[in-house]
Amino acid sequence: MHLPGVLGDVSISAICAGFIAVAVSYAGPMLVIIQAAQRAGLNSDQTASWVWAVSVGSGIVGLVLSLFTRQPVVVAWSVPGSALLLTVLGDYEFSDAIGAYIVAGLLGLVLSLSGLFGRLLAAVPRPILAAVLAGVLLPFVLNVTGAVLASPLVAGGLVVAYFAGRRLFPKYAVPGALVVGVVLSMIAGQAQSPELSLAVTVPLFTVPTFSIQAIMGISIPLLIVTMAGQNGPGLVMMRTSGYAPNDRLLLTGTCVASVIFAPFGSHAINLAAITAGICCGREAHEDPAKRYIAGAAGGLFFIGFGLFSATILDLFAAVPGELITAMAGVALLGALQGSMLDMLDTGSHGPASIEAAVVTLIITASGIAPLGIVSPFWGVLAGTAVYLLLSVGRGRRTVKTTAGKVPAVVPTPSTKRR
């Protein structure tokens, strides 16, 4: 790794993108972990260790993979996995849950090393995968309207500042909007003064135990929702942003980290989907080759936040929720636009792929989770089924245009001319 070259690629916009990605993770998904810990009856040491484990684990993997691959690899914890644990964690001994986390990580490692998950993902038409990503991003962007209505000065001012920045200084539109939002929240009196006590979090090691009940109730559902709801959209996000991620390398790295940090409370570490859009987009840097700094910066922020997790949570609790909601929405606008354009690009798949992509978008954006499995999985399943129904069995042949160079695929007539 050529350190001077890395330092030469550092930019304020990329560092800000990494910070915003981490801020969004702490302001929203982290609260799901805290709520799950409370419902399961975990004590403060166990909860702090859980936060430490997912933060430091995600940070180390994101930092190393971003610098190694020179791609913006954003790693975080499983959000749908956290939601799953809201309902099931309290039903098992905590040591059994730790054992189930390890089993889920090992099963994911098998899928990653074999390349099976990557091959399955590659077999799905690109418009359907783009629609999954659009469906994941759309609710976050739509939430901006509610934030603006709830807090016109702070959230509305942030949105105005973002679009003004897109016109005047596109590279710094997102960090500029964040600064404006913070200032406006202070002026409006919506920012609280947190009571901070700077203390390094000490992780708590739990000896894992294994039970069939916990493996069936936690490991299998956790594996499904993490691979389908996080790693899949995470890979799609990188691909639609113009990168060619090595799925075996990235998924193996996250699964190994999941196993290592599980005894400290981490339920699953995986590729990020939502926050990856912040670091993979043009707001991080106009040059895609230099956006890996955003992923590396996000990793460093995750490590720092994890080491002082209790203090950082106090800081984010002082910021109005409408500001975080609006900030996440505008930061993801570029990624949403790109995924929707890809969704409508049929390529070699024909018009059937658009109908299938629309079905995928609707189901994914709905947020349904039958059988405890998150909507992106059902979106891909339904979209692929519609695509196969509309396209398989219809004969197609390739012809040449009058220029004799560009191939065009047209339906083969069902009857021959006599």
UniProtKB/TrEMBL annotation:
The UniProt record lists the keyword Cytoplasm: no
Pfam family, one: BenE
Keyword Membrane listed: yes
Recorded superkingdom: Bacteria
Transmembrane stretches, start-end: 12-37, 49-68, 74-92, 99-122, 128-160, 172-190, 210-228, 249-272, 292-316, 323-341, 361-390
Keywords assigned: Membrane, Transmembrane, Transmembrane helix
NCBIfam families in the cross-refs: benE
Protein name as annotated: Benzoate/H(+) symporter BenE family transporter
Organism from which the protein derives: Paeniglutamicibacter terrestris
